[in-house]
Amino acid sequence: MTNETVTTTTAAETPVAAPEPLPHGLGVSLPAADAGAKTEGTFPYAADLWAEGLLWAAVLRSPHPHARIVSIDTSHAREMPGVRAVVTHEDVPGTPRHGRGTPDRPVFASEVVRHHGEPIAAVAADHPDTARMAAAAVIVEYEMLDPVIDPEQSFEAEPLHPDGNLIRHIPLQHGDPDATGEIVVEGQYRIGRADPAPIGAEAGLAVPRPDGGVELYLASTDPHTDRNTAAACYGLSLEQVKIVVTGVPGATADREDQGFQLPLGLLALKTGCPVKLTATREESFLGHAHRHPTLLRYRHHADAEGKLIKVEAQILLDAGAYADTSAESLAAAVSFACGPYVVPNAFIEGWVVRTNNPPSGHVRGEGAMQVCAAYEAQMDKLAKKLGLDPAEIRLRNALATGDVLPIGQTVTCPAPVAELLQAVQDFPLPALPKDTPEDEWLLPGGPEGAGEPGAVRRGVGYGLGMVHMLGAEGADEVSTATVKVHDGIATVLCAAVETGQGFTTLARQIVQDTLGIDEVHVAPVDTDQPPAGPGCRGRHTWVSGGAVERAAKMVRTQLLQPLAHKFGMSTELLQITDGKITSYDGVLSTTVTEALDGKELWATAQCRPHPTEPLNAEGQGDAFVGLAFGAIRAVVDVDIELGSVRVVELAVAQDVGRILNPAQLNARIEAGVTQGVGIALTENLRTPRGLIRHPDLTGYALPTALDAPDIRIVKLVEERDVVAPFGAKSVSAVPVVTSPAAIASAVRAATGRPVNRLPIRPQAAVVTGQ
């Protein structure tokens, strides 16, 4: 026993601290509703789906990039025990072609295969191994054809498709073609093929319905477009096809390969049983769209002070075998070919062509990322030739609100380009290793790098980038949302898919902010709801968030109208704060719960931004709704003997409009920057002679936590875009576009080498004769 005195208190005497109020509303870091389920492993991903009487599917894909199909023999596969169905092009009852942008891709190849991995047949069986063996048992006789793998050769090659090889040509002409500058620099640049590499490979479940239709359970990012495509393919009405969105394991592109979805539903309709398909990582690489490999040729003209006079460029995008969204990607590339700089004269030729390479399509920052790497390299060349600091020449040409883009569109949104660049330039540089001897100096290549410290050079580089938000060139960017309130709980119904961009969290915050209700649920997404469009370019923050806000405000009016009428005032004189309704004069004070009094309120609203227009024959037009800008300063260490590169730090400044969720916004920027590191240094889907080499995550090197540099978000400019709901801008695409260019700029500074290709190959960073 000790001599300590023990005192006790009764429960009645114990002071009870008031519970901490949970964060809610716009501007706070509200945690994601599904964060717990994802960390605990209980989140329902598509690969986890199950149904009674389930069959398993497998797809036979072409091993060749280009071949004529002489015959397809499915008899051996059909005779295998456990096989329930085999489908080919002959079993497609409706429209045989599909495609995100241009419907030019067959569900199954019939006469010719145009790329490695193109679907030819699909099998449903009672066991996944049986399905895979049956798919392999389908005998296809091919007549080999020479593949067209060089997009420059595509112009003269025989047509690879009935629509020809040229998908789109944009000849942008802006200003005086005879204008010249005292200083001229030229360059040729190549951007490699990058894969979106989603966290989970594609998976889905198709369930036949009693009315002869089918339900597809998919990790779709654009369910209504997928539903419309499926219905046309199956020869069914839209009412007979329903898509239910399951948990999406991250998406930096369209996410779902429609060539994967469509055979799934065909097999379910043919067998009358639920059918599940879980793609391997190899199948995922073979099936979905990739970032466009791009060839760029540039000539910049400037005066003796470094002010840009004219930019001339040729941009060639490789679409692969099919068009997909390539026309949109080319429009972005051509429109932003001069970057966030004032360029009075611009002449840009852009083409996108078909080849026998793997298909390209929408990947975060499409078009804008490729040209950013090229025009920033040109700015570095101009700075070197003029003897100017690389940041200074950028400041002298920085775009601002009121300036005119080369497409003739006036920048009406906030464009604080110079402010962003100044912020990263003024941020203190990281310490050199010799200044912190107590820390281990990580050589490029890792802690056990084989290089010598004396061979390491440090470089500092800059990147300025811009992206468009929403669709472009007349795209109808409408979204619909419904907000219901019952028993003090609000529910949001909107077909905006949560792909990791945080829409469900934002929707909760909007309703909390507008109605003062803490408990807000976002309903699962399916195609019984009105369409909200694809989950890309941060568009759901704008259009779907705007629709939720409008619906919530309509419910707010319904809630406040009786009180306003009772006290003889308008609803505008009432405010809702922290769950309480008060009047401007203090006469009225009640809670939202009391005002609801068991009522059920609901409203549906749409958000549709102002219309845009297609680019005309000279590449001119008001094509974009909104623009977002960013600046990054990269610091790298380069082993000039081995060519290995270590990104030490990336300082980021970004134009965000308004911060709606600080933690979520920072996470999106950091993720985008890290993705850009991969694009700059490691991510390259190699396709010799059109064949995907090493279609797996060992052959395709993604950056890991060990590759992520220190990311310093040094400034977030909150200058609201008045035409955007909440004034917020898209944030995740800007760092993806800008960071590869900044890293390449820093490697140029460290080595003196031109660095005209991404990803940066070791030989491009080797300096001889040192």
Automatic annotation (TrEMBL):
Residue numbers spanned by region Disordered: 1-23
Record-annotated Aldehyde oxidase/xanthine dehydrogenase a/b hammerhead domain positions: 40-146
SMART domains: Ald_Xan_dh_C (SM01008)
Gene3D superfamilies listed in its UniProt record: Aldehyde oxidase/xanthine dehydrogenase, a/b hammerhead, Aldehyde oxidase/xanthine dehydrogenase, molybdopterin binding domain
InterPro entries, A to Z: Ald_Oxase/Xan_DH_a/b, Ald_Oxase/Xan_DH_a/b_sf, Ald_Oxase/xanthine_DH-like, AldOxase/xan_DH_MoCoBD1, AldOxase/xan_DH_MoCoBD2, AldOxase/xan_DH_Mopterin-bd_sf
Biased composition (Low complexity): 1-19
Domain of life: Bacteria
Protein name stated in the entry: Molybdopterin cofactor-binding domain-containing protein
